[in-house]
Amino acid sequence: MKFTPALFAHAEAALAALLRFEYPADAVLSHYFREHRQLGHADRGFVAETCFAVLRRLRSLSARCDGDASPRRLLLAALFCLRGWNLRELAPVTREAETAWLAAAKAAKGEEWPAAVRCDLPDWLYERLQAQFGADTEALAMALNRPAPLDLRVNPLQTTREAVLARLAADDIAAEACAYSPLGIRLEEKPALAKHPLFVAGDIEVQDEGSQLLGFLVAPKRGEMVADFCAGAGGKTLLLGALMRSSGRLYAFDVAEKRLANLKPRLARSGLSNVHPVRIESESDAKVKRLAGKLDRVLVDAPCSGLGTLRRNPDLKWRQSPQSVAELVAKQGAILAAAARLVKPGGRLVYATCSLLAEENDGVVQAFLAAHPDFVPLPAAEILAKQGVAGIAPAAGEALRLSPQAHGSDGFFALAMERR
Ligand SMILES: C[S@@+](CC[C@H](N)C(=O)[O-])C[C@H]1O[C@@H](n2cnc3c(N)ncnc32)[C@H](O)[C@@H]1O
Fold first, then answer.
1. Going by C-beta distance under 8 Å and a sequence separation of 6 or more, which residues neighbour residue 185?
2. 296 among the known binding-site residues?
3. What separation in Å is there between the alpha carbon of 171 and the centre of ligand 1?
4. Which of 62, 236, 264, 267 is the most buried (most CB within 10 A)?
5. Nearest to 368 by CA among 353, 383, 354
6. How far apart are CA 393 and CA 373, in angstroms?
7. What average pLDDT does the chain have?
8. Is residue 270 within 8 Å of 202, Cβ to Cβ?
C-alpha cells in the first residue's frame, strides 16, 4: 500500500459516511468499497482499519482534536497517536500548521478527561457499566476497545481440531486451540479464509469462542427436537446440528428472510441434514405455536444491543441509546415468553445475548422466571464442565457471563433453565 493524498481522501470520505451512524459500520464500508472498486486489498485494509480505530476511540480522539474533530483530524490523530505512524510517514498529507497540533495531541495523557471519555464510551453507557462493574469498568472498556482475534469452530461431523490445526500449520497459518471451547481455534492473524479448502469443505466456520460456548450450554443430544429461535445466519444452528450428530430435528426460526438465506450456503457446506430453516412473521407465528410443549431444547439468542461485541462492532456504542435498549428489552421478554411455550416438561430453555447490560440479561430472565414458576435456572458452569468445557468459573445467579477481559471472547450472557 502506498500512502497518498488520494488514499487518505478515501478514508476521509468513508469516515464521514460512518460518522452519520445511519447504518452498521460493516455495511457502510462494504457500500463504499463497492462504489470505489479501484481500491485494492491493501488500500481497503488501510481505510477499514483506520476508520475502525477512530470508531473505537472516538471520544478520546475528539478530545485530542482541539475543538476541530473533523474526519481529517480524527484520522490523522488515529494514525499518529494510536497506530504509531511518525510525521515522516504522514508527510504526504499533513500541512505545515498541523505538526504542532499533532505533537500536542500525542502528548495529552488524558488524566484530566472524564472517565467516560477515557473509556471512549457515551455517558449513558459508561454510567450503566460503572453501576454494574464498578472498579473493573475501565479494564472492561479497554478490552472492548481492542480488535477481536479471529476464532474458528471445527465441524466435528467432518474432522477433528487436531487435523485442522495440522492443516493450518502446513499452510503457515499460525493458530492454537482455544482456551475453553473444545472445538475452538484462535488464529494469530486474520487471513482471508473464504477460499481456503478447510472452509470450502465445511470443516471450519468463523465463530467467536464465546458464541461456541452457548451451543455447549444448550447441549442438545442425538435424536432430540430442538429450536434455535433467533437463528439469524445460523452461527449457533450449525453447532447445535453438529452436537446432535445431524440427527433429530432442529428448527432454525427467524423473522429475517435475508439472514436465513445466508444460512443456506453454510448449511450446504456443513454436511448437516437435520436443520429446518423456517421464516416466521413474529414470535407468535402459528408455525411456532404448533410446536408447543414438544421440544427438548430451545435456544433464544435474542436480538440485543450487541454491546458485548464492541471489539468487532465499535459503532454500536454510538448507535445504541437508552431508548433503543428499552425497546429491545420489551422485545426480548416477548420472544423469551413465546419460545418458552415450545419447551416440554424436563426440557431446556437457554436465553442468551451478546450484551453486557443487566437490563437485557438479568432483568429479562428475572421477569421471565417470576412469571413462569415452572422454569428453574440450571448452573451454567456445571453444564459446561460436563460438556468438556473446562475452567469456566461459576457466575452470579447460575448464568454464564463472558467478557473480553476475563475470557478473551466477546461479551455474552446466557442462562439455561429447565421446565419442571
Ligand atoms: C443475535 S441475532 C442471532 C444470531 C445467530 N443466532 C447466530 O448465532 O449467528 C438475533 C436474531 O433475532 C432475529 N429476530 C428478531 N426478532 C425476532 C422474533 N420476533 N422472532 C425470532 N427471531 C427474531 C433477528 O432477525 C436476528 O437474526
1. 151, 152, 153, 154, 161, 164, 165, 168, 175, 176, 177, 178, 204
2. no
3. 35
4. 236
5. 353
6. 27
7. 97
8. yes
User: Which pLDDT does position 390 carry in this prediction?
Assistant: 87
372 within ligand 1 shell (Cβ under 6 A): no
* Spatial distance between the Cα atoms of 71 and 5, rounded to a whole number of angstroms: 14
For the Cβ of 204 lying below 6 angstroms from any atom of ligand 1, the answer is no
51 given a catalytic annotation: no
Residue pair 260/251 in contact by the 8 Å Cβ criterion: no
E strands in 117-183: 150-154, 175-177
| Best residue among 228, 254, 264 to mutate for probing ligand 1, ranked by most atoms within 8 Å of CB | 254
DSSP 225: E
Per-residue pLDDT of 75-133, as tens digits, reads 999 999 999 999 999 999 999 989 999 999 999 989 999 999 999 999 999 999 999 99
Work out the angle at residue 300's Cα, subtended by the Cα atoms of residues 214 and 314, and round it to the nearest 5 degrees: 70
Residue 362 parent element (H or E): helix 362-371
CA pair distance 332, 236, nearest whole angstrom: 18
Which residue carries 421440544 as its cell? 295
**Residue 301 assigned ligand-binding role:** yes
Q: Which protein residue has the closest C-alpha to ligand 1 atom 1?
A: 303
Residue 264 has phi, psi (to 5 degrees) of: -55, -55
- Kindly report, residue by residue over 269-306, the tens digit of the pLDDT: 999 999 999 999 999 999 999 999 999 999 999 999 99
CB 333 within 8 A of CB 367: yes
Q: In terms of DSSP bridges, do strands 175-177 and 343-353 run parallel, antiparallel, or are they unpaired?
A: unpaired
Phi, psi of 412 (to 5 degrees): -135, 150
ipTM > 0.95, yes or no: yes
**Residue ranges in the chain whose pLDDT is less than 50:** none
